[in-house]
Amino acid sequence: MSRKIHLALHPYGVGGPGQHGLWKDPSIAKNASIDITYYIQQAQAAEHALFDALFIVDSQFINATYPAHYLNRLEPLTLLSAVATHTRHIGLVGTASSTYNSPFNLARRFGSLDHISGGRAGWNVVTSFDTGTSRNYGLDEHLDYTTRYGRALEAVEVIRGLWDSYEDDAFPADVASGVFLDPAKLHALNHAGEHFRVDGPLNLSRSPQGQPVIFQAGVSEEGRNLAAQVAEGIYAPGATLEDARAYYADIKQRTAAAGRDPEHIKIFIHGGPIVRGTDEQAQRRAREIFEEDNDFDRNVALLGRAFGAHDFSQYDLDAPFPDVAHLAEKGGRTGAAKIIARARTENLTLRQVAESFGERRQTPFVGAPGTVADTIEKWFAAGTFDGINLAFRNNEDLERFVDGVVPLLQQRGLFRTEYAGTTLRENLGLPIPANRHTRARNLVDA
């Protein structure tokens, strides 16, 4: 089979959303989320299994109700720079907000990670939907959707321009002639836009992969359009086969409509495989995990994140779901809209909505190794993903997948048996972007 599945690892630490009980697992170190050794070991295990990338999520606002991993975790770029020195092939994708970072700072930090890792960096562009983040940056209010996504698009354009500050052959470093830099190959950006003014140039050369890979995770109209314009990798929800297939087709169509090659955008769905010796054992473990993590008070708190970390504990649980639609515009609008629509259509109380948050939504990748491999193959053949962003509760679950499922995927020609190269772009099958100034010069010379 010519197409190959891409795999990424998303470590949970002591437990993220929907994993509230994970920190109680005796195999999980209580300081895992701030222990760099934990991340290095996770990355090395994933690299041994030939995974494409390690993916680190982030947020910059918490309160006491947030999941354990969110309460106490390392900053992504610092974390990934340390992991880079203990790995050789696996990509290193970090999350950073375009709303609460300056483009020059982001360009320099991700460019530095790209050099440290030898061309394995990726930036997951987010606009932030936790309203409280604004107050950590001296703002009274979070930016609205239109502003956030307009700023994100401009930020990516500026950052890519800064990454092109030096052409590839800008540093002859010729001792005989005394020339270290060819000044004709250094370019200021001189950007003046709606959201940013950035002169440049960036004081950092291009890496072996040209530029870090741009990732994005958006399901709203604005998010999908941003992805079609700039993303090279996407993290998608993938709730059901039908939903995942529709999302995949939509993004590929939008990418083509934006004048880009749809093959140059890789869509990763979320997956939390549960692998055991038999299907029955795996299903039993899935039920146990649900019971371990299901907590009503936590579900009420988690519900609030879609509405900008709104506190729903102030309402009568048995009254109709409150009118909080106005909070969605500066929160997670798409998710909030679905919650509101269901509450209105089914005339649900707040308690019922919170309970629905705790409904068991089982991953499709549950069973014996052969069953899980069959399901992955079925979804892949149906056109639902290019890759899976995998989350495992502990090292034992990761090992079960690596030892039991990966060999089956390899035997079927669905997954690599060796890395294609040393950069993230090579392993994802993405082209190295040409330096814009070199390209312009070549067009003139032609």
Report on this structure:
41% of the residues lie in helices and 11% in strands. The protein is built from 17 helices and twelve strands. It has helices at residues 36-48, 68-71, 76-84, 103-116, 133-136, 145-163, 221-230, 241-257, 279-293, 296-305, 325-328, 333-345, 350-357, 369-381, 395-411, 424-428, 436-445, and strands at 6-9, 53-56, 91-97, 121-126, 191-192, 197-198, 213-216, 233-236, 266-271, 274-275, 366-367, 387-390. The strands form three sheets. The chain has an eight-stranded parallel beta barrel, surrounded by five helices. Strand 1 (6-9), helix 1 and strand 2 form a beta-alpha-beta unit. The longest helix has 19 residues, at 145-163. The radius of gyration is 23 Å and the shape is globular.
Strand content: 5-15%
Mean pLDDT over the full residue set: 92
Q: Enumerate the strands of the largest sheet in spatial order, edge to edge or round the barrel.
A: 1-2-3-4-7-8-9-12
How would the global form be characterised? globular
Quantity of strands, as a count: 12
Element pattern in H and E? EHEHHEHEHHEEEHEHEEHHHHHEHEHHH
Short description:
With 446 residues, this protein is α/β, with parallel strands linked by helices. The chain has 17 helices and 12 strands. It has helices spanning 36-48, 68-71, 76-84, 103-116, 133-136, 145-163, 221-230, 241-257, 279-293, 296-305, 325-328, 333-345, 350-357, 369-381, 395-411, 424-428, 436-445; strands spanning 6-9, 53-56, 91-97, 121-126, 191-192, 197-198, 213-216, 233-236, 266-271, 274-275, 366-367, 387-390.
